[in-house]
């Protein structure tokens, strides 16, 4: 619980720094609930961004409560309160960037990092993130891509009020933010799927179990050209374990054939014994 609170708090603070330090100072726009809050603030400067964001989140809070997870929503409510508070209190005096493209990139990096850090917890900072988590849970869609598409709708409306040029700079900000968010969400849990075709499957598997302390599954394979049967080793490892995996495989069988694939996500627990995957 403490880790989740710390992640939500840190992510909310980082995001507030990006909003007040870059986005608002440059007059950029955004999408989703934050975009609506920014539009309201630009049209009515007395309107507090954090308060508007909190009020507009109420319908999505109900969706998250009944459609995602009540535990998730409890942390999300904390995230929304933390963000609203941070937005009202944190006004960093960052150096003004004259080039709007560079400012959009910087804002995207900061805000994307803030959202990514928050989503590493068991909650979120609210806004369309609740809807994105819901769609990710139901459909398995990538959050960064969904965020970019959904935010574009609000941005199109904003372009009507504030001009196309500002909307295009804001589009750069949103694109960078989505990419940074995806990177943070996947980099901490990056896995490699390994396939090894070898005549020494038993020896290599034993080394995977004993040296890497990773599970493995033996698949039955048949060579298309020779028709001979071979065992295929399938295993999931971390990026830091890849070099060790290559070393132990080719030390035992220099003629082994090894395939390394990136995995977008690894879900589920190992079945059977603790050594199987």
Automatic annotation (TrEMBL):
Keyword Cell inner membrane: no
Keywords: Cell membrane, Membrane, Transmembrane, Transmembrane helix
Coiled coil: none
Broad class of the protein's primary localization: membrane
Transmembrane segments: 12-40, 46-65, 72-94, 100-119, 139-161, 167-185
Compartments reported by the entry: Cell membrane
Membrane topology of the entry: Multi-pass membrane protein
Protein's name in the database: Membrane protein
């Amino acid at each position: 619980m403490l880790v989740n609170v710390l992640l939500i708090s840190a992510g909310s603070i980082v995001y507030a720094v990006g909003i007040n330090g870059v986005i608002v100072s440059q007059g950029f726009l955004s999408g989703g609930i934050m975009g609506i809050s920014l539009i309201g603030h630009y049209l009515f400067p007395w309107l507090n961004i954090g308060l508007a964001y909190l009020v507009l989140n109420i319908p999505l809070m109900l969706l998250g409560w009944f459609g995602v997870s009540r535990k998730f929503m409890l942390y999300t409510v904390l995230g929304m309160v933390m963000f609203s508070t941070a937005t009202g209190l944190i006004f960093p005096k960052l150096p003004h960037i004259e080039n709007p493209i560079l400012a959009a990139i910087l804002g995207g990096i900061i805000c994307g990092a803030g959202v990514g850090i928050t989503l590493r917890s068991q909650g979120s900072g609210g806004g369309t993130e609740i809807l994105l988590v819901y769609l990710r849970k139901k459909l398995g869609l990538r959050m960064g891509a969904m965020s970019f598409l959904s935010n574009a709708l609000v941005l199109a409306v904003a372009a009507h009020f504030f001009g196309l040029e500002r909307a295009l700079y804001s589009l750069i900000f949103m694109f960078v933010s989505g990419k940074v968010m995806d990177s943070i969400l996947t980099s901490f849990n990056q896995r490699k799927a390994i396939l090894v075709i070898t005549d020494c499957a038993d020896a290599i598997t034993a080394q995977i179990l004993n040296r890497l302390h990773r599970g493995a599954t033996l698949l039955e394979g048949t060579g298309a050209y020779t028709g001979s049967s071979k065992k295929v080793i399938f295993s999931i490892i971390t990026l830091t374990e890849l070099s060790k995996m290559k070393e132990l495989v080719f030390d035992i069988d220099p003629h082994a054939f090894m395939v390394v694939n990136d995995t977008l996500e690894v879900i589920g627990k190992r079945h059977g014994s603790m050594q199987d995957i």
